[in-house]
Amino acid sequence: MKKHFLAVLLAAGLPVTASADHSWADYHWARTTSSFDLQVINSTTTDWDPYVTQAIADWSKSTKLNMIEDPSGDTSSRTRRKCSAPDGMVRICNLDYGNNGWLGIAGISLDAQGHIVTGYTKLNDTYFTQSYYNNFSWKQSVTCQELGHDVGLGHQDEDFNNESLFSCMDYQDPPYEYPDNHDMAQLDTIYGHVDSYDSFASDGSGGGGGGGDCNSPPGKGCNKSDIGWENSNAGWGMSLGRRGQHETFIRIDPQGMRHITHVTWEKGH
To answer: Which residues contact 242 (CB under 8 A, 6 or more apart)?
Structure first.
């Protein structure tokens, strides 16, 4: 059953259409050029390779963004569990992350100026091996959407009862697998200016993000929140709110860096 989170608008009988502004807050990568190359390290196993390659090709149709796949990413369980990206890059991973309720996660880390400096995406095989989700539409759609979040995109529409907008950034079941022209237009808007420095890199060292680096115990420090022990232990920090199957968390590490995590929950969780 799809949920009505826009209850006031629907009750008033007003039409609900795709948002012309569906950026994820004002998150974006800093760059000094009108377009930029963003390296995506593919640390997924071979069964996920076609979905990752397709999503990277689709987002690279943007006039502002060219995702470059590094297919030689480490696929060890240890690397895929943490899924931490080097500075200036994104890493995408899959693993049996457990029966924890989420299908996919996109996370970004921000510097002091609020620009993205690393990103990651996790795809949870615990659910994608189940018959309901183990199909092209769900796998491609979630891969596409989470990588879209890694470059600063939000959702076009968050009401499952609305007609499909035919975008992976739309709430729908069955899901749609690809970005659309609205997504590309939003990237044009997000990256329609230049910055004084680049936060992306063709190569780099170090890392951030990862979704589990908070060193504070549950309920303390950067894990201080009221979201339940299972999410605090994941290192996501405090919930900024949930709509339907999607929820956003923030934590601030001892160095002051902000880490934002977008979670896609399974249906009914």
So the answer is: none
